[in-house]
Design goal:
Blueprint (H helix, E strand, L loop, with lengths): L3 E4 L1 H5 L8 H12 L3 E5 L4 H10 L5 E4 L4 E4 L4 E5 L4 H13 L3 E6 L2 E4 L9 E2 L4 H7 L2 E8 L2 H5 L2 H5 L4 E6 L14 E7 L4 H11 L7 E5 L5 H4 L4 E4 L5 H4 L4 E2 L7 H11 L7
Parallel strand pairs: 1-2, 1-12, 2-3, 7-8, 12-13, 13-14
Antiparallel strand pairs: 3-4, 4-5, 6-7, 6-9, 9-11, 10-11
Length: 274
């Protein structure tokens, strides 16, 4: 019987309108009621991930910043963290400042930004980057801008920083068929960080065998989850390359694919065969 399900947010749990359907909420609620631990796993920062976890009726455990931080929001307790090296944050900050793009840092205390954003929860950095990283662990950095070209051209410079890796990025940066959106971004974290890393840490903390876990996602940063869990479920809206890394395909995020899968899982009392 499967004991845990790890679910991505954007393009997976949420539809293209950014909403979690009532059917999906009910399916998640029923899964938790049956004893399955449902963990929201995202590249988002802690506050945003907690909000989605609560709205979807998932369990109290979350994975944020693409696997850099695990948290129990019911007990207000860190489960694990893999912060970035301080010098890496400073180098990324300087790269962003030199190229006049926004720089965002995800920390346990929230998001701190170089430039003002529309997010009411963001705090503008009011001290030197050197002083800031001595006070707070940074789980993930984002470099973003309205200019697709500006962000695209930063990739080789980011890759020169030895201890970091690009964990997620705008779909327009990996697929020429996808037009740039209002903001283009790179998510950057420690090289060891991945959603799969986070899944392993949570399963270890909860004494759950990875073969008894399921991962559900739609994008490249979800592949590391697929590689760790006994069952991997890809959304119908994912591209073919991402699909090739999963064992089972459900419907798209606009067709309640997560709910459809969970309903089948619950109907079979926690068992599932592809």
């Amino acid at each position: 019987m499967y004991r845990a399900v790890f679910i991505d947010i954007d393009g997976t749990l949420k539809n293209d309108s950014g909403e979690i359907s009532d059917r999906t909420k009910e399916a998640v609620k029923e899964a938790v009621k049956s004893g399955i631990i449902v963990v929201i796993c995202s590249g988002r920062p802690i506050r945003s991930t907690i909000e989605v976890s609560k709205k979807s009726f998932a369990s109290e455990f979350i994975i944020t910043s693409n696997g850099a931080y695990g948290y129990n929001h019911k007990e207000n307790k860190c489960v694990f963290k893999n912060p970035m090296k301080k010098d890496s944050c400073i180098k990324l900050y300087n790269l962003a400042k030199e190229n006049d793009v926004n720089f965002i840092m995800n920390t346990e205390k929230g998001r701190f930004v170089l430039k003002e954003t529309n997010n009411e929860y963001d705090t503008i950095l009011s001290e030197s980057i050197e002083s800031f990283v001595e006070k707070l662990d940074v789980m993930q950095c984002l470099l973003q801008d309205s200019s697709f070209e500006k962000i695209r051209d930063l990739k080789p410079y980011i890759e020169k920083i030895e201890s970091v890796g690009i964990k997620n990025q705008s779909k327009s940066l990996t697929n020429p068929k996808v037009p740039p959106r209002e903001v283009t971004y790179y998510d950057v974290a420690d090289k060891k960080t991945s959603k799969g890393f986070g899944v392993k840490k949570i399963c270890k903390a909860l004494n759950i065998d990875l073969q008894d876990a399921i991962s559900i996602g739609d994008d490249y940063n979800d592949i590391s989850m697929f590689e760790q869990t006994g069952l991997s479920v890809v959304m119908g809206n994912a591209n073919d390359e991402v699909k090739s890394n999963a064992k089972y395909e459900t419907l798209s995020n606009n067709e309640d694919g997560v709910a459809v899968f969970l309903e089948k899982l619950l109907k079979n009392k926690g068992e599932f065969r592809c």
